[in-house]
Automatic annotation (TrEMBL):
<protein>
    <recommendedName>
        <fullName>proline dehydrogenase</fullName>
        <ecNumber>1.5.5.2</ecNumber>
    </recommendedName>
</protein>
<dbReference type="InterPro" id="IPR029041">
    <property type="entry name" value="FAD-linked_oxidoreductase-like"/>
</dbReference>
<keyword id="KW-0642">Proline metabolism</keyword>
<keyword id="KW-0274">FAD</keyword>
<dbReference type="InterPro" id="IPR002872">
    <property type="entry name" value="Proline_DH_dom"/>
</dbReference>
<feature type="binding site">
    <location>
        <position position="173"/>
    </location>
    <ligand>
        <name>FAD</name>
    </ligand>
</feature>
<dbReference type="Pfam" id="PF01619">
    <property type="entry name" value="Pro_dh"/>
</dbReference>
<dbReference type="GO" id="GO:0004657">
    <property type="term" value="F:proline dehydrogenase activity"/>
</dbReference>
<feature type="binding site">
    <location>
        <begin position="197"/>
        <end position="199"/>
    </location>
    <ligand>
        <name>FAD</name>
    </ligand>
</feature>
<dbReference type="GO" id="GO:0000166">
    <property type="term" value="F:nucleotide binding"/>
</dbReference>
<feature type="domain" description="Proline dehydrogenase">
    <location>
        <begin position="49"/>
        <end position="310"/>
    </location>
</feature>
<keyword id="KW-0560">Oxidoreductase</keyword>
<keyword id="KW-0285">Flavoprotein</keyword>
<dbReference type="InterPro" id="IPR015659">
    <property type="entry name" value="Proline_oxidase"/>
</dbReference>
<feature type="binding site">
    <location>
        <position position="104"/>
    </location>
    <ligand>
        <name>substrate</name>
    </ligand>
</feature>
<feature type="binding site">
    <location>
        <begin position="236"/>
        <end position="237"/>
    </location>
    <ligand>
        <name>FAD</name>
    </ligand>
</feature>
<dbReference type="GO" id="GO:0010133">
    <property type="term" value="P:L-proline catabolic process to L-glutamate"/>
</dbReference>
Length: 315
């Protein structure tokens, strides 16, 4: 029996993520891949990212900055990452822009203990949200592998209660079995949520494995969040889902200012411009920094077409 396209794409993704985690592959791509990674990464510095924001804003597209890096094990790099993000927020404001940043709390010390006994990820993320709020900005707490979901949602709840949903949001991953329950559990916060399909290699015990099932779960998350009256960031490049969300909003009288489309930097820029020209809020997820390999490998794993781009560049 021939595998379906959905089965092929799922197998490709599993193999690509497994291969990317091989130390030999990581060493080769880390040495040779930066020129190729620049398709997905705006540059190594905050100034590179600010230039990207300004270029996109000229096309009616907003930016969401992400300093690349994750899974640090000691306080020193966690605190250093925090200082770099704070400096970036200051630089964005100085450039005449409103800060909008995504942060991975594992890069800020999540799971480690701060001097006052609290979670270091919470302490550092709070500093980031406080700085962004000073300039009228926004911070999105990225969601990572399933082992960090409980901690991330607990920290998110604390920060929303202190700073408000206008200044802090988080992410739900459609492929996790728990995400629909998690979404409902947050309704009392009126949360600003970014809906993604999920980009980590997770076991079937915690995550859906079929693309068809993940797509259906993604639509349910978005639709239920919109029907609850909450702000939704529809983060996908799947034009079928994008158009379905547009039609759903029209059919249910949901205004355009209750949701936005978020797409990745360097991918489907034609679609980003098309949506912006149609009057929708569009935001590009703009990564920058030197620690780009993990992000780059997940982009390769998302679509078979991406690996051909890499192979052509290496050859």
């Amino acid at each position: 029996m021939e595998p379906t396209m959905s089965q092929f794409e799922q197998l490709y993704r599993q193999v690509a993520l497994s291969v990317a985690g091989n130390p030999v592959v990581e060493k080769v791509l880390s040495k040779q891949g930066w020129a190729l990674a620049q398709r997905f990464v705006s540059g190594e510095t905050a100034q590179d990212a600010i230039k990207a924001i300004k270029r996109l804003e000229a096309q009616g597209i907003s930016g969401n900055l992400d300093l690349l890096g994750e899974f640090v094990n000691t306080p020193e790099p966690a605190n250093a990452n925090t200082e770099m993000i704070l400096a970036t927020i200051d630089q964005v404001h100085a450039a005449g822009l409103t800060p909008y940043n995504s942060v991975k709390m594992s890069a800020l010390g999540q799971g480690q203990t701060a001097p006052d006994g609290q979670d270091l990820g919470y302490v550092n993320t709070r500093r980031v949200v406080e700085r962004a709020k000073r300039y009228g900005g926004f911070v999105n707490l990225d969601m990572e592998d399933h082992t960090r979901v409980d901690s991330t949602l607990q920290i998110f709840r604390r920060l929303v209660k202190e700073f408000g949903h206008q200044h802090v949001g988080t992410v739900l991953q459609a492929y996790l079995h728990r995400s629909e329950d998690d979404r409902r559990s947050l309704d009392d916060l009126r949360p600003n949520l970014r809906m993604v399909k999920g980009a980590y290699l997770e076991p079937a015990s915690v995550a859906l494995q079929s693309k068809t099932d993940i797509d259906a779960a993604y639509r349910r998350l978005v639709y239920e969040h919109l029907k609850a009256g909450n702000y939704c960031n529809v983060a996908t490049h799947d034009h079928h889902i994008i158009y379905d969300v547009m039609h759903f909003a029209l059919a249910h009288g949901i205004p355009k200012d209750q949701f936005e489309f978020q797409l990745l930097y360097g991918i489907r820029e034609d679609l980003q411009r098309e949506l912006a020209e149609a009057g929708y809020t569009v935001r590009s997820y703009i990564p920058f920094g030197k620690d780009w390999y993990g992000y780059y490998s997940r982009r390769i794993a998302e679509r078979p077409q991406n690996v051909m781009f890499v192979l052509r560049g290496l050859l």
